[in-house]
Amino acid sequence: MSQFFQVHPDNPQHRLIHQAADIVAGGGVIAYPTDSAYALGCQLADKTALERIRRIRKLDEKHNFTLMCKDLSEISTYAKVSNQAYRSLKAHTPGPYTFILPASNEVPRRILSKRRAVGIRVPDNAVALALLQELQHPLMSVTLRMPGDEYPLIDPWEIRDLLQAQVDLVIDGGYCGMEATTVVDLLEGAPAVLREGKGSVEDFL
User: Fold this and answer.
1) DSSP assignment, residue 79?
2) What is the CATH number of domain 3-204?
3) Strand order across the beta sheet in which 97-102 lies
4) d(C-alpha 80, C-alpha 179), whole Å
5) In which element (H, E) is residue 194 found?
6) Strands 66-68, 139-143: parallel, antiparallel or unpaired by DSSP?
7) Phi, psi for residue 93 in degrees, rounded to 5
8) 137 Cβ partners below 8 Å, 6+ apart?
């Protein structure tokens, strides 16, 4: 049965964040809040935890995971960032955007796209940022949308009821939205909007 932490959405309790980081570092799969929706996450290099997430979401091996990073400097460790891309990242992070960037050698091959690209973002959510800061490495993440559902789960109590036998921890950071991030491709220089979501696309048009 999974653990269930009720964390203050604006001032996360460090004790609980530290325990959550220990669970991730120990190979755990967690459900946690972001600025767009609840997500499933695990340690970057943990193949077993990754496969557990695939089973929960019923995802095939072609599904792209997102690296959830704590800040711009961490992004530059896991992606190759041009000057133009850096300006876009600096203006829109943290925020509800996923940026497609060329992956560095730090990214496991099993989560790369055919173009050796990776989706990266910095969430504008105090709980998620506190956890990422405590971990000091990205979370490998996907939106918590169950198979067959059109929208992500938004109620942490419902998440606990549904997934208590499949995840190691549910972090209750309050209700989240259900709107997806805006996805921006930065592979070819000029930004290209691949999906319009919660984040405004005005600056990319």
Assistant:
1) B
2) 3.90.870.10
3) 3-6, 169-172, 30-32, 39-43, 139-143, 66-68, 117-121, 97-102, 182-185, 192-195
4) 28
5) strand 192-195
6) antiparallel
7) -125, 145
8) 43, 44, 74
Question: At 36, which amino acid appears?
Answer: S
Q: Are 183 and 193 in contact (CB under 8 A)?
A: yes
Angle between helices 14-25 and 126-135 (to 10 degrees): 60
Return the residue matching tokens 């690296």: 67
Phi, psi (degrees; rounded to nearest 5) at 160: -60, -45
pLDDT surpassing 90 at residue 188: no
pLDDT tens figures, 68-119: 999 999 999 999 999 999 999 999 999 999 999 999 999 988 787 778 999 9
- Regarding predicted confidence, which is higher, 60 or 170? 170
User: Burial level of 76, CB count in 10 A (0-12/13-18/19+)?
Assistant: middle
The span from the CA of 170 to the CA of 154, in Å, is 12
Domain boundaries, the chain: 3-204
Q: Rounded to whole angstroms, how far apart are CA atoms 123 and 114?
A: 25
- Reported as type and span, the H/E element at residue 131 is helix 126-135
| Residues 145-162 pLDDT 10s | 999 999 999 999 999 999
Nearest by Cα to 133 from 24, 2, 60? 24
Buried-state track 100-109, b at ≥16 Cβ within 10 A, e below 16? bbbbeeebee
